[in-house]
């Protein structure tokens, strides 16, 4: 039969066959119209840039890590956690403990220069780091000279703070809390700490020691009364404030001399 003698064209395996002519012939003869569209995957991979070469930016590094810490940033020095600068994402350790060396320095300079006008907001942060440091230094200097007065120091300090706290709240209209009272009294103890330091190398029982003791009492009293009147806006009552405060620092002078 004629069907047996007709050559069979294989589109898949015959490399010499013209695929376009075959499809056109099938379309003209009313076939099933199975047209296969030629793909251009190879052209797209070769001609156009790769998708992965220009991938869209991913999420930021802090989202990838699961927290807000940037691991790509250098960790910084070891002392960054203990200073006042700290890391960018967390407060420094000293600030969390309530120790700020800049504030301690500013308040200490205000005590050492009592003739300079004291700002009214100097005790907004009533920190106790400076007073505790000065009380500790005062006791250590007295211990070096053979006077172990740690119990008397803390006893007189607490009793005097409570007494002055009550007196100031009765005298002023705005009032003051106990933490600011203790902070002012502790910072103004700095001249008395210097006197105890002189007692290590000098004999305060002489005339020079008496003069230094009187100067220290007046210095502490002038500084503390100036801070109290500035914070409480009691400039006209400074001498009334200075009287009990002067008695308070006189007790510490007696500990230093005798």
UniProtKB/TrEMBL annotation:
It comes from the Eukaryota. It is a multi-pass membrane protein. The chain crosses the membrane at residues 128-146, 152-172, 184-202, 208-232, 239-257. Residues 120-255 form the Yip1 domain. It is found in: Golgi apparatus membrane; Membrane. One of its GO terms (biological process) is vesicle fusion with Golgi apparatus. Its main location: Golgi. Keywords: Membrane, Transmembrane, Transmembrane helix. InterPro entries: Yip1/4-like, Yip1_dom. One of its GO terms (cellular component) is trans-Golgi network. Belongs to the YIP1 family. This is Protein YIP. It comes from Umbelopsis vinacea.
């Amino acid at each position: 039969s004629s069907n047996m003698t007709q050559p069979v064209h294989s589109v898949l395996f015959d490399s010499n066959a013209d695929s376009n002519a075959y499809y056109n012939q099938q379309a003209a003869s009313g076939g099933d119209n199975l047209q296969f569209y030629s793909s251009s995957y190879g052209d797209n991979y070769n001609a156009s840039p790769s998708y992965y070469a220009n991938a869209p930016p991913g999420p930021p590094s802090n989202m990838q890590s699961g927290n807000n810490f940037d691991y790509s940033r250098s960790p910084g020095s070891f002392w960054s956690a203990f200073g006042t600068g700290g890391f960018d994402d967390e407060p420094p350790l000293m600030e969390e403990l309530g120790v700020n060396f800049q504030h301690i320095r500013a308040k200490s300079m205000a005590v050492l220069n009592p003739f300079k006008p004291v700002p009214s907001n100097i005790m907004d942060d009533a920190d106790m780091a400076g007073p505790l440091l000065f009380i500790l230094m005062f006791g250590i200097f007295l211990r070096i000279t053979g006077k172990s007065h740690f119990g008397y120091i803390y006893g007189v300090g607490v009793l005097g703070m409570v007494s002055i706290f009550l007196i100031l709240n009765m005298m002023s209209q705005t009032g003051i809390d106990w933490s600011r009272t203790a902070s002012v009294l502790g910072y103004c103890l700095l001249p008395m700490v210097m006197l105890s330091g002189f007692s290590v190398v000098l004999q305060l029982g002489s005339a020079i020691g008496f003069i230094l003791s009187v100067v220290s009492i007046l210095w502490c009293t002038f500084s503390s009364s100036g801070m109290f009147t500035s914070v409480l806006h009691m400039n006209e009552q400074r001498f009334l404030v200075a009287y009990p405060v002067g008695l308070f620092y006189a007790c510490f002078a007696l500990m230093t001399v005798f």
